[in-house]
Design goal:
By secondary structure, the protein is of the alpha+beta class. The protein contains 8 helices and 15 strands. It has an 8-stranded mixed sheet with strand order 4-3-5-6-7-8-9-10, with helices on both faces. Strands 12-11-13-15-14 form a 5-stranded mixed sheet, with helices on both faces.
């Protein structure tokens, strides 16, 4: 395992310990609302701090881009390495005791994602990838599914959580995809959905309005597992614009064909 990936795994497991301890007494967790249906807990903050402490101890010169604490002061300097962190992707699920959330950590080097960890602490599922070295689930090599027909595909998605923001557009996409695929699922944790595409549990995924920390780690898992990730026009700038389609090569192409009218 690459030394930087090993450090990311250590950080993810440290955060997972914080999350699992808190999950035994969810009713006592303090929750605040950043926006409509956008929650943050003291556990998110504690888990993020645990991650940053591990990463900064190993690599004090690296920059940080994290969901709760934002960007480190050196992010826009000449820093070649940036850690992109989501301490709990799926916070709404977490505060309801719905076991579908994860820790997501990615390393960006000179603009490219080179290391990725998605850790599901409820199942102890550890997804890892190093650019050029494949993707793994609990140290076993994973590949995207072999399905190539949209009518047979199980597709993941996420609804816009901000009040009325793009909801009408999303319902149109939802209907198009529902009519053409075998099933549409909305579990509520994009990073974990992307990891599921990488290991074949889902055949594709699409969502609009995501942040870099929702997609960075999962995107590398998918490409290293033989899949494709792009925006709604099939282009590669999804990390900057937040609209993403991912899937097996043939499912990806069919999804872009169906959803490209919504690329904006």
């Amino acid at each position: 395992m690459h030394p930087m990936l090993n450090t990311a795994v250590k950080a993810a497991r440290r955060a997972g310990t914080v999350i699992n301890r808190a999950s035994f007494d969810i009713e006592r967790i303090k929750v605040s609302e950043k926006g409509h249906n956008d929650f943050v807990t003291e556990v998110d903050k504690a888990a993020e701090q645990a991650i940053i402490e591990v990463l900064k101890t190993a690599y004090p010169e690296h920059a940080i881009l994290a969901e709760e604490s934002g960007a480190s002061p050196n992010l826009h300097d000449e820093t070649e390495y940036v850690w992109i962190i989501d301490p709990i992707d799926g916070t709404t699920n977490f505060i309801h005791g719905f076991p579908q959330y994860c820790v997501s950590i990615a390393l960006q080097h000179r603009g490219q994602i080179t290391q990725a960890v998605v850790y599901d602490p409820t199942r102890n599922d550890l997804f890892t990838a190093t650019k050029g070295a494949g993707a793994y689930l609990n140290e076993k090599r994973i590949r995207v599914s072999r399905r190539d027909k949209m009518a047979e595909a199980l597709i993941g998605t996420g609804f816009p959580f901000r009040s009325n923001e793009g909801l009408d557009e999303y319902m149109k996409m939802f209907r198009i995809m529902t009519e053409r695929c075998a099933g549409l699922r909305r579990p509520g944790a994009a990073a974990l959905d992307l990891a599921y595409v990488a290991c074949g549990r889902l055949d594709g995924f699409f969502e609009k309005g995501l942040q870099a920390w929702d997609m960075a780690a999962g995107s590398l898992l998918i490409t290293e597992a033989g899949g494709i990730v792009g925006n709604f026009a099939g282009e590669s700038d999804y990390l900057h614009h937040g609209n993403v389609i991912a899937g097996t090569p043939k499912i990806f192409a069919q999804m872009v064909n169906l959803l490209s009218p919504f690329a904006k």
